[in-house]
Amino acid sequence: MVTGLTRELRRRLELVGGDYPPLYPVVILAASVVLTITATAQRFPFDAPWWTLAALGCALTTLVLDFTVAAKTGACVLMLVGTSCFLMDPVPTDAAPMQLAIVTAISAAMQSLRTGLTVAAASIAVITGFAAFGGLQAPAYYISSVAIGWLLGYMILIQQRLADNRARELRARADNAAGEERRRIAREIHDIIAHSLSITMLNVTGARRALEQDRDIDDAVDALQDAERQGRQAMAEIRNIVHLLGTDEASVTPTPGAEDLERLVADYRKAGLQVNFRTVGDVGRLSAPVGAAVYRITQESLANVVKHSAAQRASIVLAVGEDTVVQVHSPCSAEPRPSRDGKGITGMMQRAHLLGGTLEASRTGDLWSVRAALPTRVGADEVPA
Questions:
Q1: What does each C-alpha distance from 262 to 209, 230, 267, 283, 301 come to in angstroms?
Q2: Where do the domains of the chain lie, and which CATH numbers do they carry?
Q3: How far apart are CA 86 and CA 46, in angstroms?
Q4: Which of 110, 234, 254, 347 has a CA between 20 and 30 Å from the CA of residue 85?
Q5: Radius of gyration of the chain (CA)
Q6: Phi, psi (deg, nearest 5) at residue 330
Q7: In the sheet where 323-331 sits, what is the strand order?
């Protein structure tokens, strides 16, 4: 029961304060109640009780509206009317006009600029009118209070808008980061599956030919075992990625790098692809992010050779110097089979761009070429998140 009452009270305070923290409406309501009680006590023993009762009625109605209606226009009008009722029975050093400073601050902080200025002008008009015809003393003091109230309210409004803009900017950044992470994961899974299926296809094709043409069961079994190994490895890597998506743990499987290219090429050679691989320079100079990018770009290029090249040949040159350049060339037919997924080249370009490099994929005559130029040294903390 207590929890329910607390939740309801918080909801009502949020209705009073709009988008502001609960402390804001609490302070405003407390100040308004104190001023109403003070203005009422100043008029005791009530020479004009009906005006005081009318003012109290307006104050109570305003309080009800604050807790039940989100729009503040009616509450502002009632506060102006209630203050005018108090001023119909003037007293020295009256506290009632200070209500006008509060209503002006509320309007400036929670409504449009035009509405806030309108309420401020109406409050000043009430003070000026009662100073001229109702015996209100020190009108300049009250007018200054109204002006300060509007200024404070407007400053609060600007601060709230800046906070809202900041929150929207942070949400947009979070959405962009989440989108980039989804694209990164998609690239990883695409590369893993494309590589695994490419070698599996080659091995299965080799096994079929061994059985159909040579009746060589041993070669067929070897090819199928390689296919099985590649499938298990791909499943293990995918399971690792899925596991990491659901936990905060760091990856326990090292990311493949440039030093793993020999093994990658060996797998494709064993599956039947003719690969000429050559390195220039010290591959050990490559930083981990660059090495991983070189590996994935080469992996995807070889997978594309399997999918799109009838010659089933490729040459790879990795040159490490001030910059690192990896080039993959393969013959292509006069009418190469089009790619239907459209993710491979885009993923390779994204990998290169994230490291500050470039990647070009083009066809010259009957030769398909992929050339990636990357900085040799890039720290892990320099890679965009």
A1: 26, 16, 9, 12, 15
A2: 2-137 (no CATH), 173-382 (3.30.565.10)
A3: 11
A4: 110
A5: 38
A6: -155, 145
A7: 274-280, 313-320, 323-331, 367-375, 358-364
- Residue that has been written with the tokens 């760091």 in this structure: 250
Rounded to an integer, the average pLDDT of 146-167 is 90
* Summary mean pLDDT of the chain: 82
Entry pTM: 0.55
What are the tens digits of pLDDT across the range 1-17? 667 777 776 777 676 66
Read off φ and ψ for residue 115, nearest 5 degrees: -65, -40
The closest alpha carbon to 298, from 323, 264, 253, belongs to: 264
User: What is the C-alpha separation between 318 and 325, in angstroms, rounded?
Assistant: 6
Beta bridge partners of 275: 314
Query: What is the per-residue pLDDT across 162-204, written as a single tens digit (0 to 9) for each?
Result: 888 888 888 888 888 878 777 777 777 777 777 677 777 777 7
Cα 253 from Cα 90, distance rounded (Å)? 82
Cross-strand pairs, 330: 368
> Of 86, 87, 76, 101, which is closest to residue 55 (Cα–Cα)?
86
CA angle 205, 208, 209 (to 5 degrees): 85
Q: How does DSSP classify residue 97?
A: T
Q: How far is CA 74 from the centre of its chain?
A: 38
